Automatic annotation (TrEMBL):
Entry keywords, A to Z: Isomerase, RNA-binding
Substrates-to-products reaction catalysed: a uridine in RNA = a pseudouridine in RNA
Keyword Lyase: no
Gene3D superfamilies: Pseudouridine synthase, RNA-binding S4 domain
Function: Responsible for synthesis of pseudouridine from uracil.
Name assigned to this protein: Pseudouridine synthase
Family: Belongs to the pseudouridine synthase RluA family.
Pfam family, one: PseudoU_synth_2
Domain RNA-binding S4, first and last residues per copy: 13-73
NCBIfam families referenced in this protein's UniProt entry, alphabetically: rluA_subfam (TIGR00005)
Class of this enzyme: isomerase
Superkingdom to which the source organism belongs: Bacteria
Entry EC number(s): 5.4.99.-
């Protein structure tokens, strides 16, 4: 743990911006997580990221020592890290990146460097479009998340205005996200809507689906359409009307048709015969369907972007 006392030069800053300035090697998403977990204390208490610091405030940082190193070319990973990105689209405001399954989107206690946001930041750093050492620099940030073992399109903002607009559009459901999934069995009817209430169990990192309202539960709705059937498997397209944790995986499992390869919500013996160890789920298409002014991003309205190649579709439904 390290302590800092706020002087006149730092007074008036937001906590998260002071932290980014003081610890430039600490990735922005991890800094936000540490604030949420109360590993950054102001006068002995946890605090919100946007609190304004005052002269004399005592900050206690329960953060790993390596983040306190000075940012030099020798220890700044951005200059030597070789980013690997599958870009679906890029312009001056944002990136659409096809995240591969197995890659985490943000740093955590287990993986600090090899994450999607790190690849993106290194990519933009090496293009000289962004540097954490520029004064008042905005750190590229993700607008949406995808589970480690799910692949698909992730939106990354290059500037604060893009991040603000995208977060609002996602909240207002002015973006449409379509997934491809392979499920066990056949849906009856072949097309329809799965509706219910999802309750998250933080201790198990899992959710449960209920067909009635429950305290703490959130509504969940998924429109699905069966595209192909082959043997004991079905390829379905899903349109998320809500964006709950593990929504597609949990709802199809609750309907009696868990996703192929899903070890958390499916059955191991069913997955074993197909040789797949993680869920066959891919966020393959994204549409910008603004119903209100898109501001800086209005030029994206009406456009749709798609990942053309999804490996499990070819593997289980290709012509062989």
């Amino acid at each position: 743990m390290k302590e800092f006392t706020i002087g006149k030069n730092d007074a008036g800053q937001r906590l998260d911006r002071w932290l980014a300035k003081t610890l430039p090697l600490l990735p922005a998403p991890l800094a936000q997580k540490y604030i949420r977990l109360k590993r950054v204390k102001v006068n002995g208490k946890g605090s919100k990221r946007d609190v304004r610091l005052q002269v004399g405030d005592l900050l206690q940082l329960y953060i790993n020592d390596e983040f306190f190193d000075a940012p030099t070319p020798e220890n700044a990973f951005l200059s030597v890290f070789k980013p690997h990105l599958d870009l679906v689209y890029e312009d001056e405001n944002l990136l659409l990146v096809n995240k591969r399954p197995g890659l985490v989107v943000h740093p955590d206690e287990h993986e600090r460097v090899n994450t999607l946001i790190t690849h993106i930041q290194a990519y933009l750093y090496q293009k000289k479009e962004w540097s954490p050492y520029w004064e008042n620099s905005f750190a590229p940030a993700l607008c949406n998340r995808i589970d480690r073992n799910t692949g698909g399109i992730v939106i990354a903002a290059k500037n604060a205005e893009t991040l603000r607009i995208m977060n609002q559009k996602i909240k207002d459901r002015e973006l449409s996200k379509y997934y491809l999934a392979i499920i066990h069995g056949r849906m009856n009817p072949p097309s329809g809507k799965l509706e219910g209430f999802i309750l998250k169990d933080e201790s198990k990192k899992q959710v449960r689906v209920f067909d009635h309202p429950i305290p703490g539960g959130k509504t969940a709705a998924t429109v699905y359409k069966t595209l192909k059937v082959k043997g004991g498997l079905s390829l379905v397209e899903c349109d998320l009307l809500t964006g709950r944790t593990h929504q597609i995986r949990a709802q199809f499992a609750a309907a009696g048709h868990p996703l192929l390869g899903d070890g958390k919500y499916g059955r191991e013996r069913d997955n074993k015969q197909y040789g797949r160890s993680f869920q066959a789920l891919y966020s393959y298409r994204l549409s910008f369907d603004f119903t209100t002014d898109g501001g800086l991003l209005e030029y994206l309205n009406g456009r749709s972007f798609q990942v053309e190649h999804v490996d499990f579709v070819d593997e289980y439904f290709g012509d062989k």
